[in-house]
Amino acid sequence: MTPLLRYQAALLLRSQRWLAPFLLYAAYVGVGVRPGEPLPGSLGYAATALVPVAAWAVRICLNQEPPAARTVVAAAAGPARAHLAAIVTASTAVLLVAVVTVLAVTAISRPHPGGAVAGLLAAAACTITGATVGTLTTRPLVPSRGWSLATLLLGSLLALVTTGSPAKSALTALLTTAHTGTLPLPWPALATALVLMTTATALACRLTARSG
User: DSSP string spanning 32-95?
Assistant: First the structure.
């Protein structure tokens, strides 16, 4: 699996397709987060955009290979493993960005006990939720590029506003803290996001293996 992850990471870096989602995210955080503001609210704001960013990154990694190269990699390593490597690469990249963002926001915001831990958990929940959306809205489940983009945008929006969504649960915990002062750690949201991500990835990999 390690060679596949290195291959996918190298493809992502060389393609420079990551620039669009990550630069837009940096601009979003830079405009919306101000020094000295309450930490929970700032972390909640920063975590919100991780859902579409993660979905976008997964879509990029799953579609960045030319068809011929994809066929060769699938033949050498198996289509399911190749598909999994792309999803893991994208998710890891966004998680790294999320960790850096949480640390930066924590450094410039008004301190709050346990805020950084809660922010990391919420960011992880949002990232994994977004990666789930990306996994379910591109090939092999949604092979059409046009419909893939439309469903990705709709799925990201629903993940942020639908009751029971791990992302909404994690964000609600942070934003509620900004008013009440009580800081619940969003472990349940993170656990739910991991279960959904595992299920979605298993489904996508199985369908990829069948179609391959």
Answer: H--TTSBHHHHHHHHHHTHHHHHHHHHHHHHH-S-HHHHHHHHHHH-HHHHHHHHHHHHHHHHH
The residue length of the chain stands at 212
Nearest residue to 107 via CA among 179, 29, 169, 167: 29
pLDDT in tens, 20-68: 999 999 999 999 999 999 898 899 999 999 999 999 999 999 999 888 8
pLDDT by residue (tens digit) across 122-159? 999 999 999 999 999 998 999 888 899 999 999 999 99
Please tell me the pTM assigned to this model.
Answer: 0.94
Q: Distance between CA 39 and CA 33 in Å, rounded?
A: 10
Close Cβ partners of 116 (under 8 Å, ≥ 6 residues apart): 39, 102, 103, 106
